[in-house]
Amino acid sequence: MSVTTALQDHHHHCDDDFASTEEAAQRGDWPACATAFAKLHDDMQCHFHIEEDVLFAAFEAETGMAGGPTEVMRHEHKQMLELLKQLETALQNKDKDEFGGVAETLLVLMQQHNMKEENILYPMCDQALGGNQEVAASINQGLHA
């Protein structure tokens, strides 16, 4: 098992959370949207935290590469968190159009971000960390806490 398998699986989990949130908003079911959004927000924050504090930290320590791909991913995490704030505001205002527009932007960013991680950064991390079971266990524990 690679170090990044659980994170890759968690991308799909966050995608499902996003779909549930968006579907509820499209129906105008704001209570269901609020519940789904809370789960999406929590899961994405957890995911970013585990990546940045466990995976990226281990990768940077092993390779000495503190800029580059991990810096780009951290920047994109901040962008997504800002979009989540905008979604929350649209949700609170029950503004279907605003919610849909922000959700579309977030979806594109999530898809591009996940592809970069899964096709570029995660393989680099797996190669550099060589199946480090301590890192893998910390990732699994953090995602399932």
Automatic annotation (TrEMBL):
<dbReference type="Pfam" id="PF01814">
    <property type="entry name" value="Hemerythrin"/>
</dbReference>
<feature type="domain" description="Hemerythrin-like">
    <location>
        <begin position="4"/>
        <end position="125"/>
    </location>
</feature>
<dbReference type="InterPro" id="IPR012312">
    <property type="entry name" value="Hemerythrin-like"/>
</dbReference>
<protein>
    <recommendedName>
        <fullName>Hemerythrin-like domain-containing protein</fullName>
    </recommendedName>
</protein>
<dbReference type="GO" id="GO:0005886">
    <property type="term" value="C:plasma membrane"/>
</dbReference>
